[in-house]
Amino acid sequence: MVINFLRSRLAPSTDIRVIVEGRDVPALAGESVAAILLRTFEGATGSDSISRPRAPYCMMGICFECVAIVDGMASVRTCLIPAKDGMRITRQNGPSPLQEVPRPKQTGSDE
Question: Ligase: is it a keyword of this entry (predicted)?
Answer without folding.
Answer: no
